[in-house]
Amino acid sequence: MTTQYLIKRGDTLTTIAKKYNLSLNQLIAANPHLAKNPDLIYAGDTLLIPDTNEQETNVSNVKTTSVNITPIKIKHTSETQIKASPENHADYYQTAANQLDVDRAAVKAVADVESCGKAFIAKHKPAILFEAHIFSRLTQHQYDEAYPHLSSRKWNPKLYKGGLKEYDRLAEAKLLNETEALKSASWGKFQIMGFNYQLAGFKTINDFVAAMCNSEEAQLMAFVSFIQAHKSMLQALRNHDWAKFAKCYNGPAYAKNRYDSKLAEAYQQALRA
Fewer Cβ in 10 A, N or C end of the chain? Predict the structure, then answer.
C-alpha cells in the first residue's frame, strides 16, 4: 500500500529513500514530478512512499489502463502562436517569456513549481493530476457516494496516486463521464486545469487534451493564452508578485500550500541557473 511522508526541514530524497529501504529511482518513480530536479523539495510537502511489492521501480514499466487519448496534429485556436525556429525551438521558456513580455526565469519558476518542469512522464502522456473535488463539482456530486476515490466534495490529497497511476484514475472517471473527467485533470508542464480549455485557447476539451498530449510546444501555447486571458495574473507575473500570482493561479489556499514561497524560491534558483 502506498503511504505518504511529510517532508521535514533538512530532508533529502536520498535520506528519505534510505529511511524506507528504497532506491532513489524507486522514490522518484512514485513521485515523477521530482525527476527533473530531485534536489528541489520543500518542507511541509508530501511524498508518496511506494510499497515495493506492488510498484515497479521504473515509471516506464508501470502498467496503466488505456485512456484512449490519441495524439494528433493540432491547430491552435488562439491568436497567440509560438513559431518554432532553430533559434527558439530548444528554449520554450524564452519563447513563452517573449510572448508574455516577462523574464525567462519567471516562466521557468511556474513550470518548476507546477511540475518540476516536466512536460511528459511517458510518450504522449503529459504529467497530470486528477482532481476528485473538481470531478464532484462538475458532475453535481452524483458519484460521491458510489465512487469516493474519484468524486469528493472536498480536496483530499490522499486520493492522489501520482505518476502514471493518475491515468488509471482518469480512465475510471471517464467511464462515468468522459467530458467532465477530462476537465477535472490538470495537464502538462504548467498543470492547467482541463475546465480552463477555452481560456487556454481551445474550442473543445478534446482539442485541449490532444494538444497537451502532442508536444511541449503546445503546452507552452496553452500557458501563454491562459495567462494572457488573465490580465491581473499577467501583471503579477511581470512584477514577480508571487502571492498575487499564486492566489490567481493556484486558488485561495495558495498560502497554506506555500505556492507563493515556492514560486519565489524557484524564481531565484532560475535566475542563478
Answer: N
